[in-house]
Amino acid sequence: MAKSLDLKEDSFLDQHGKQGSMETRFGFYPRCPRPDQVYGVHPHTDRTTITILLPDRDVEGLQVGKDDQWFKVPVIPGALFINLSDYGEV
Fold first, then answer.
1. pTM strictly above 0.70
2. Cα–Cα distance measured from residue 68 to residue 25, given in angstroms and rounded to the nearest whole number
3. Strand 69-72 to strand 63-66: parallel, antiparallel, or no bridges (unpaired)?
4. Do residues 73 and 82 touch, judged by C-beta distance below 8 A?
5. Could you report the per-residue pLDDT of 22-44, keeping only the tens digit for each?
6. DSSP letter string, the chain
7. Domain ranges of the chain
8. What is the rounded distance in angstroms from the CA atom of residue 53 to the CA atom of residue 62?
9. Paired strand residues for 64
Protein backbone atom coordinates (compact mmCIF):
# COMPACT_ATOMS: atom_id res chain seq x y z
CA MET A 1 0.00 0.00 0.00
CA ALA A 2 2.85 2.38 0.84
CA LYS A 3 4.50 1.81 -2.53
CA SER A 4 1.25 2.55 -4.36
CA LEU A 5 1.13 5.90 -2.52
CA ASP A 6 4.76 6.66 -3.51
CA LEU A 7 5.90 6.30 0.11
CA LYS A 8 8.86 4.38 1.50
CA GLU A 9 8.01 0.69 1.62
CA ASP A 10 8.34 0.58 5.41
CA SER A 11 6.57 3.89 6.11
CA PHE A 12 3.70 2.25 8.02
CA LEU A 13 5.95 0.42 10.50
CA ASP A 14 5.83 3.34 12.95
CA GLN A 15 2.05 3.01 13.21
CA HIS A 16 1.63 -0.76 12.96
CA GLY A 17 4.99 -2.22 13.97
CA LYS A 18 6.77 -5.12 12.30
CA GLN A 19 4.21 -7.58 13.70
CA GLY A 20 1.03 -5.64 12.94
CA SER A 21 -2.23 -7.38 13.78
CA MET A 22 -5.06 -8.30 11.47
CA GLU A 23 -8.69 -8.81 12.39
CA THR A 24 -11.23 -10.43 10.17
CA ARG A 25 -14.95 -10.21 10.70
CA PHE A 26 -17.65 -11.55 8.45
CA GLY A 27 -21.10 -10.02 8.63
CA PHE A 28 -24.24 -10.80 6.72
CA TYR A 29 -27.02 -8.23 6.73
CA PRO A 30 -30.16 -9.53 5.00
CA ARG A 31 -32.98 -7.20 4.03
CA CYS A 32 -35.11 -6.39 7.05
CA PRO A 33 -38.60 -7.91 6.76
CA ARG A 34 -40.15 -5.10 8.89
CA PRO A 35 -38.18 -1.88 8.28
CA ASP A 36 -41.06 0.12 9.75
CA GLN A 37 -40.23 -1.35 13.18
CA VAL A 38 -36.49 -0.65 13.35
CA TYR A 39 -34.31 2.42 13.60
CA GLY A 40 -31.35 1.07 11.62
CA VAL A 41 -27.71 1.92 12.17
CA HIS A 42 -26.77 5.51 12.85
CA PRO A 43 -24.26 7.14 10.49
CA HIS A 44 -20.75 6.06 11.47
CA THR A 45 -17.26 5.59 10.12
CA ASP A 46 -15.09 2.48 10.31
CA ARG A 47 -12.34 2.72 12.94
CA THR A 48 -9.97 0.40 11.10
CA THR A 49 -7.20 0.76 8.52
CA ILE A 50 -8.91 -0.95 5.59
CA THR A 51 -12.46 -2.26 5.24
CA ILE A 52 -13.31 -4.65 2.40
CA LEU A 53 -16.97 -5.20 1.56
CA LEU A 54 -18.88 -7.30 -0.94
CA PRO A 55 -22.01 -5.19 -1.49
CA ASP A 56 -25.32 -6.86 -2.27
CA ARG A 57 -27.78 -5.33 -4.72
CA ASP A 58 -30.66 -6.57 -2.53
CA VAL A 59 -29.37 -4.70 0.52
CA GLU A 60 -28.31 -1.29 -0.75
CA GLY A 61 -27.59 1.67 1.46
CA LEU A 62 -23.80 1.85 1.83
CA GLN A 63 -22.56 5.43 1.85
CA VAL A 64 -19.17 7.06 2.30
CA GLY A 65 -18.53 10.34 4.06
CA LYS A 66 -16.34 13.03 2.52
CA ASP A 67 -16.13 16.71 3.51
CA ASP A 68 -19.20 16.47 5.79
CA GLN A 69 -21.34 14.95 3.02
CA TRP A 70 -22.54 11.36 2.51
CA PHE A 71 -22.41 9.77 -0.95
CA LYS A 72 -24.20 6.58 -2.04
CA VAL A 73 -21.86 3.78 -3.12
CA PRO A 74 -23.07 2.12 -6.34
CA VAL A 75 -23.37 -1.66 -6.28
CA ILE A 76 -21.31 -3.32 -9.02
CA PRO A 77 -22.14 -7.06 -9.16
CA GLY A 78 -19.18 -9.20 -8.07
CA ALA A 79 -16.97 -6.19 -7.21
CA LEU A 80 -15.39 -5.59 -3.82
CA PHE A 81 -15.60 -2.17 -2.20
CA ILE A 82 -12.31 -1.25 -0.51
CA ASN A 83 -12.49 1.61 1.97
CA LEU A 84 -9.46 3.32 3.46
CA SER A 85 -10.97 3.67 6.91
CA ASP A 86 -10.36 6.15 9.75
CA TYR A 87 -7.06 4.75 10.99
CA GLY A 88 -5.78 4.31 7.46
CA GLU A 89 -6.64 7.89 6.60
CA VAL A 90 -4.66 9.19 9.57
1. no
2. 27
3. antiparallel
4. no
5. 777 777 777 778 878 877 677 77
6. -TGGGT--TTTTHHHH-TT----------PPPS-GGG---PPP----SSEEEE---TTS---EEEETTEEEEPPP-TTPPEEEE-HHHH-
7. 31-90
8. 10
9. 71
